[in-house]
Amino acid sequence: MSLSDVVPQLFPFYHDKVEAELKGIINSNPSLLLGMLRYHMGWQDEHGHPCYEKSGKFIRPILCLLSCEVVGGETRQILPAAAAVELIHEFSLIHDDIEDASNERHHRPTVWKLWGQPQAINSGDCMLSLACLALVKLKESGIADKKIIGSTQMLAEACLQLCEGQYLDIDYEGRFDVTIEDYLSMIAKKTAKLIAVSTSLGTYLGTEDEKLVNYLYQFGKELGMVYQIHDDILDIWGVRGKTGKSIRSDISQKKKTLPVVYGLQNSKGEVRRRLEEIYLQEHIQGEDLFEVMRILEQLGARDYSQNLAKQYYHQALAQLEATGLASQNLGPLKEIARFFLERDY
Amino acid sequence: MSLSDVVPQLFPFYHDKVEAELKGIINSNPSLLLGMLRYHMGWQDEHGHPCYEKSGKFIRPILCLLSCEVVGGETRQILPAAAAVELIHEFSLIHDDIEDASNERHHRPTVWKLWGQPQAINSGDCMLSLACLALVKLKESGIADKKIIGSTQMLAEACLQLCEGQYLDIDYEGRFDVTIEDYLSMIAKKTAKLIAVSTSLGTYLGTEDEKLVNYLYQFGKELGMVYQIHDDILDIWGVRGKTGKSIRSDISQKKKTLPVVYGLQNSKGEVRRRLEEIYLQEHIQGEDLFEVMRILEQLGARDYSQNLAKQYYHQALAQLEATGLASQNLGPLKEIARFFLERDY
Fold it and tell me: A123 and B99 in contact by Cβ < 8 A?
């Protein structure tokens, strides 16, 4: 049984719950910005007609729910928190697409491409405000006030780190001296922090056991590293049309992804000179994209990246084991971890 | 004694408290985005050297503190809430400057002008996250959990309306059919809501009397209308160099401010034709700016706007009186109301 067979069977149950909650939150707000938000979520086309495009994977809210369930918490009660995590992720996507001048997401034009930058900035801000309001909704499901404030703090801190990670990501575009360490610290902020908060928030709302919250936080952090490194690999060597984003767009935008950082650090002589020459252009296009890909492959950047992702994957599993929770209960979280390592979309 | 003599004597005491709180919040976060935030606040120049530029008026947090004090609350205790209100306002300024392509604020280049749009979007997002964290800080000053959640809800709702108001403001730029009613509904969202939340939040944190909270909310709402209408007037007929923004930038960006909406609705024949001709250009510049100004003046748009501002001012005062609070205690809030109506910066 291949993973792509397993995971889609695991996700729909939670995916539907999360989507229903998100629709409730977004549609209950009679905002004029709604159309852009619903378009971004894949629920309607740019003219406001309902559509059934493939939307996001809702991987973060699903992790949040599973991490609640694994410690014996009630997932129904924490749906607004799971939705809040996704709203923060979606807000960051809308703004990142502007910042990175990305034209496509999920095989469709990005919000800024259709409505322009000003309204896209606005709709991202609106999405972030809805995340705050989602947490307030936890009152209705009987979550203690203290924990609602704790959740707000966790998510706001994740959001701060997201901004900082994105700052570094953009800053690195023009640099050649980015080390592996710099890269890891950037993705820890840009990607891993929100995933760590997704898992630990679910646990925090499902148990009073702080140790478990910490283990699940660490699990999410390691898992977030797997996710981003694998994402970097997919951008270069993924199958066109699967990921929903333009392929090799990281290279064309001169993003310092792991294979590139590794390549720049481990190339010498003529190869290094050629890489620098290509990366000194404003945009990398056409044949140069393939040349970068070939050079990185020859330097072993792909193997290096895959091995590092595997290392984080094993560290993530170790954190899960350390919880001491019954192995059969950890199954779904382990499945997701494997999906992060092996997904092709 | 002129107003400009009175108000600066009233503000510094609160201004300094708010600024100290804001510095604490912004500086306690060791973010790489800090430099941009500190620059925006007027605390350092673009190279990171401290400077003593004139910063914002902190009118919203000051209103928040005064509205707490007037109902017998402890202002020291609610400083983080006052700071949160300002952080939301500042976040919206950073993003609005991008959305409106404004080059200057407080006589200095805007954040996006110096660091580019991507990092400016990022720094606005960072400011908004800090606002959430500021509210969490209320725990330390002994505010009840229930009220912290209530505050989060009030500010998140204000933020949503802000986005919606800004959406309309941009949407109206290309339209000729904006009515006075459309305009009033737009500024109620873009400007008045956050001012209403500033006053009512202070009261909410200072008393258990819901009626007082409602009166102060209404007071802030009326006051917000005064503020924006007066701002519209200042943009056209203000003294260059006083407001810190480029003068007549609203006209040049084809913003549907009150005088313009009035002018478009109350002009006929040749005058109307000329106004439309000017407003069909992509940007309004040079001699056309002065022509719009002259036409609006002749149509009575300035008088109309001033009278409407006065009307809202009196409605604001009526809400204050309705509180039944001792008249001498209402003095500072009344002073600010008068400042809103008569300020020249």
Answer: no
